[in-house]
Amino acid sequence: MADVQQIIKDVTGIYGKERKALMPILQAVVKTKNYLDDQDLIAVAKALDLSAAEVFGTASFYTFLDTVPRGKNVIRVCKTISCHMAGKDAIIHAIEDTLKVKTGETSVDKKFTLLSANCLGWCHKGPVMLINDQVYPELNAEKAIEILQKYQEED
Amino acid sequence: MENTRPKRVDIIFLMEGIDPIKVVENAMKKSPDEIILDMIDSGLKGRGGAGFPTGLKWKFTRNEDSYDKYVICNADEGEPGTFKDREILDRVPEKVFAGLAICGYTIGAREGFIYLRGEYNFLLPVLNQKLDVFNAGMKKIGLDFAIQMRSGSGAYICGEESALFESMEGKRGEPRNKPPYPTVAGYLGKPTAINNVETLVYAFMIARIGAEKFKEMGTKDSRGSKVFSISGDTPKAGISELELGMSVQQFVDEFGDGDTKAVQVGGASGGCVPRKMFKETIIGYEGIPTGGSMMLFNSSRSMYNVLHDYLEFFTEESCGQCTPCRVGCQQLLKGIEAVKRGEKNPAYLDDLKKLAKTMKVAAKCGLGQSVANPFISIVSNFKEEIIY
């Protein structure tokens, strides 16, 4: 909780306490802890003098502002047509097998959440995935697993 | 024109010998009205897909009487098959900044924003760093104008301009009723000129060397060149800047793999052109307009799968605000699945086409209205593939 208060303080310092600061605040919280829980939303609502329902309404609209717990690293594999044709299914299967999760789930050690995403804007270099903000184009199954291992070795 | 190859152009990514801040400084020697006349004269139309004349957009915003005005760069590039804006912001961001500054000077805005889709957040550190330098440059040349970055959070609909304003205002990205248009009441209810990334770079080029060079290219209805995002079954996937006015056939001759059966022009919300119509279809406002997405499909591909992918995309990305789009997308998707499984007879596709046409009329924004484009063009031209 404490660090969420600090994030709110930092971001409102830059963007002010009006409602237009809401997206930057929510984005900053998600960047730090990967999702927004009820207490976070209430704290943000208080800081901006908005109703908690308004804040939840905004957060729940956006795919990247998760309101359910996510792992430390959020993997988003592009599933839209060009990546589909380039073989995104093989990538998803490889990741599912490696992490022992299905798409939409979080690994037992809470290190990874695997999600599929709509067009990520790398249609000429598919299949592609995002891990947090980092992009990995031109994947094949082996390459995807190698990349995951690097994240796995981190604390 | 019939057998010539598409003409390659090098405007957008050309950086050699160009000092963007100097170009802004030179542009300021002209009056805002002169710049607007240049933009109108050039025939430049918005490169995001809708194709509204840029000069008019700037003129309308300039004409509004308001102390606060804004200029926004729409970098919420979410259309499937499009990746040109990322490439432009990655390779020549200063030209985009300068385009914003010239627009700001012209319309009388002191603040500019770049709304970047969340999927491109990895560009932020470098862009912010370059913006600091650029904003300092504006101070130095005496222009009261600064640009800030804003991020999206994974919502396709926020590429719709009024949904983008809502998002920037901290709300759900639900499109507004129009009118009022953004030039009258945009971000925070103030007059706002919102332009696509690529449009701003062409505006920059016109400010730098005048409208003539731009006008020389293209056709009467589609002036200039355009950056195309090319993907799918092609040996030449990637970005190409081409003169407007070519036919789909010319495009396929250059970029196809020899077995192209269809080209989806304009992304998921665009239209599908089948092989038999390649020759007669012009890529441009007189034929099939495009934000630059060109997806090629060869004969190994099932057009049912292509349409299914698009409909899944729209079902997930519909904001849910208006019924025609929210329910329409779901029903079109369920409908083609039912026909495929044989639970509905093929004549049901005609009912679905009627539904798509209704969405075109009744949906509140461009998302719901444009679902009919891929749906009707694919179902009409590849009926067998949808049924069997």
Layout of helices and strands, plus pairs?
The complex is a heterodimer of chains A (155) and B (388).
Chain A: H1 2-15, H2 22-33, H3 38-48, H4 52-61, E1 73-78, H5 81-85, H6 88-99, E2 112-117, E3 129-131, E4 134-136, H7 141-153
Parallel strand pairs in A: 1-2
Antiparallel strand pairs in A: 1-3, 3-4
Chain B: H1 20-27, H2 32-42, H3 54-63, E1 70-75, H4 84-91, H5 93-107, E2 111-116, H6 124-140, E3 146-151, H7 161-168, E4 192-196, H8 197-209, H9 211-215, E5 225-232, E6 238-243, H10 248-255, E7 260-265, E8 271-274, E9 293-298, H11 303-317, H12 323-341, H13 348-362, H14 366-370, H15 372-381, H16 383-387
Parallel strand pairs in B: 1-2, 1-4, 2-3, 5-9
Antiparallel strand pairs in B: 5-6, 7-8, 7-9
Helix pairs in contact in B: 1-5, 2-3, 5-6, 5-8, 11-12, 11-15, 12-13, 13-15
Task: Describe this structure in a few short sentences.
Chain A is of the alpha+beta class and 155 residues long. Chain A is 50% helix and 12% strand.
The most extensive interface between chains reads: A-B, 36 and 51 residues
Number of helices of chain B: 16
Structural class of chain A: alpha+beta
What strand line-up does the widest sheet of chain B have?
Answer: 6-5-9-7-8
**Secondary structure: number of strands of chain A:** 4
Shape of chain B: globular
Please give the number of β-strands of chain B: 9
Q: What's the CATH topology name of the largest domain in chain A?
A: Glutaredoxin
For this structure, the quaternary state is: heterodimer
Biggest sheet character of chain B: 5 strands, mixed
